Amino acid sequence: MKKNKRLYWVLGGVILILVVAAYLSGNVPEVQTITAEKGTIQRMVVENGIVNARTARDLYTETGGKIISIPVEAGEALQQDEIIAVLDNPEIVLTISNAQTQLAQVKAAIAAQQASLAGINTEFTAAKKQLARIEALYKAGGASLAEYDNAILAAEKLQKSLEDLNNSMSYYRLQEESLAEALKIARDNQERLTIKCPFAGKLMYLACEEGQIIAAGTAVAGVAVAGELEVMADVLSDDIAEIAEGQTVLITAPVLGNTILSGQVVRIYPQAEEKLSALGVIQRRVPVLINLPEAAHLKPGFEVRAEIQTVRKENVLFLPRGAVRTNQDDQQEVMAVVNGRTVVKAVDTGLYDNENIEILNGIEAGDLIIKEAGTQISAGTRVKTAQ
To answer: What share of the chain is helix, strand, coil (3-state, %, to 5)?
Structure first.
């Protein structure tokens, strides 16, 4: 009988222990953990950007007129010097006609003057010889003073005629030069009435139509080299310090699907500009130009997402940023799990990106760390772990 009672007591104790253990086990909190490991941290500056043609030009009229022909359409591939639009300007045509007429008249006058000069030159040469002969005779007593004076007067008269003709010729030459320059300018203006493609590319847009009268300086078309693209991103001035020329940029967009294009920062503009954000906040942003060697499905005007890879560190110990917290003493710390219980460990941190943060010291690779540092669990608490 005593043996049975003892057995009952033993069984009851075992059952009680099992019940208490089960109860305690059921109340042990479960925490999400992560194993500290080494890897790469890549900090990025992410901004939206606009795709532009790398080689593009807006074409403007250099002189006004009426558009009489547009032999191309927007979207067409063009060759260098292919005609985009032709203008008509009657004033330029009239200027050319008048300049040609006046130039012809001046050339005729110059020809007449040259003929006169040739004749006077012949007469002047003969007069000088005659004067020399009369002068010799006069000195020898073979000619009278009147004959000598007449010879001098004849030579001087012809010399004066030569001077007048030469002055007149200089005037006509100046007129000829001026009219030739005016004709050249008018013909150049006539050439400018034909708007041509400056390089082989694609006609991006047309801003004119046949019959339209436009003034000088009016934009009529835009051309670009097809397939050569770049991205312009406006970066917050607070982020610009980490950006440098030559950094890699990852380009994504809905039109690209899962394709990620790789570009490179080629220029950082020297001055920030005021930009209005989508929320109506004025921000200071710096334009950053990104070269895009591969176009894929992108076209000028498309919006893309540009991830500029700034600072990169490899083979460093890191944790998710959420696993690190700052205590009341402004010391960063993590909550580790050692032998099933929580342990608070002070850490020093370094580089961080959008997801992870570098751990300089305080833990080692392989340590089990609670993923959410804000979990309300005291140090020394027994926990169940899940990864």
So the answer is: 35, 35, 30
Fold assignment, 90-192: Helix Hairpins (1.10.287)
Domain ranges of the chain: 28-42+314-386, 45-54+227-312, 64-88+194-223, 90-192
- Token pair for residue 157? 């008269």
Per-residue pLDDT of the chain (387 residues; tens, 9 = 90+): 445 555 555 555 555 554 444 444 557 788 899 999 999 998 899 999 999 998 889 999 999 999 999 999 998 999 999 999 999 999 999 999 999 999 999 999 999 888 888 888 898 899 899 888 988 888 888 888 888 888 889 889 988 988 888 888 899 899 999 999 999 999 999 999 999 999 998 999 999 999 999 999 999 999 998 778 999 999 999 999 999 999 999 999 999 999 999 999 999 999 999 988 888 899 999 999 999 988 888 988 999 999 999 988 999 999 999 999 999 889 999 999 999 899 999 999 999 888 999 999 999 999 999 998 877 888 888 988 887
Pick the CATH number of 45-54+227-312 from 3.90.1150.10, 2.40.30.170, 3.20.20.140, 3.40.720.10: 2.40.30.170
Per DSSP, helices labelled H in the chain are: 2-26, 90-140, 145-192
Taking a C-beta distance cutoff of 8 angstroms, is the pair 306, 46 a contact? yes
**The CATH number, out of the four listed (2.40.420.20, 3.40.50.150, 1.20.1250.20, 2.130.10.10), of the domain defined by the range 28-42+314-386:** 2.40.420.20
**Torsion from C-alpha of 94, 100, 101, 104, nearest 10 degrees:** 180
Cα torsion 140, 141, 143, 145: sign: positive
